[in-house]
Fold these 3 entries.
Entry 1:
Amino acid sequence: MSYIGSGPTVAEIRAAVDHIVVSPGFRHSPQLVSFLRFVVDTTLAGKATSIKSYSVGIEALGRREDFDPDSDPIVRVEAGRLRRALVCYYAGEGAGHPIVVEIPLGHYVPMFYYRKYPYLASKLATIVGRQPIRLIDVWTRSYLHKWVGNLGRRDTSGAS
């Protein structure tokens, strides 16, 4: 769930989304942009409960009225692509951005929150992104990209 009152403001969220959709991972994918904007706008309008596979297929992905999400996996496929694109964005260009937009696995309703350590994530992304890395091998680089992308995410384990 998104707790807009305790997290980023609507204006901050909209600005973050505007920055995301012009990034390289989204710029050439109108379906990802449409999906992201639809779920964010619907959530910010207070209608998060109406975000279902059918509504995403019709409203965001341009499917016809007879769209059947049980037989056409397009919404699930695009949701997976969107999640991966957001992880790549926050591990790269968006590493230093303080506001995170996340689509939790198994849901289409986005979460919005402040990143705990945006400066640290930005610095790590810069280090990991450097081409001539002498101390970090290829496996470690990909591991660090994933780690930087997850840096500052909420701890869902319940531990303090």
Entry 2:
Amino acid sequence: MKKLSLLIAFALGYVLGAQAGRERYEQIRGTVNKVKNDPRVQEKTQHAVDVAKHQAPIVADKVTSAAGAAKDKVTGTNGSAPHHMAGPQGDLP
């Protein structure tokens, strides 16, 4: 009898919670749509997209340059491994 009561209580809680959750979801969804469709938000979004498109090649060049500089530091400027290594000297325990 206890298990049946617990099962009924769980099922009732689930159904009521799901309904309340769905209503809150719809409320949040409506608010998001209102904000998303606001002309001011769309204008700012388009501006951000335009800036990103303009800056993308510049950022790509900087990343490529930084990667090349890092590679040169790791391998040495002539392509061979450097003669010294950073880090502790001696055997590890």
Entry 3:
Amino acid sequence: MQHICCMSKRTFITQVRVRYAETDRMGYCYYGNFAAFFEVGRVEALRSLGFSYRKLEDEGIILPVLDYSVRYFKPAYYDEVLTIETSITEVKGARILFEYTTKNEQGEELNKAKTTLVFVDAKSGRPTKAPETMAKVLNDSTNN
């Protein structure tokens, strides 16, 4: 299940259901799966602002992750619907920063995370500024 709505101009909501294959022997959602859940939140947040990874890549810009950190508080379990709150917190130069909060069906915080991505020119492999139209929308969303 995946659903997104814009909670505010800065925070976006995506829901994912923990699949059986995403659990470990303890019955917990394996911690490494959260990186993929955050990617879903990030991609859908950008899409809701009118930008897609595919279009960026078609225009010769890739967005690799520079930094990723997460702090876990509680586990998630098989078949739970998780709510991923994704915020775009800063767009500066070639970098874009995201923050995430994952909540379970009871609204309890399971973890908090941050990622920094870099706009990179696919041909040269060098960092580049965000496309001008995208930078304006992203900066407007982080300043409200």
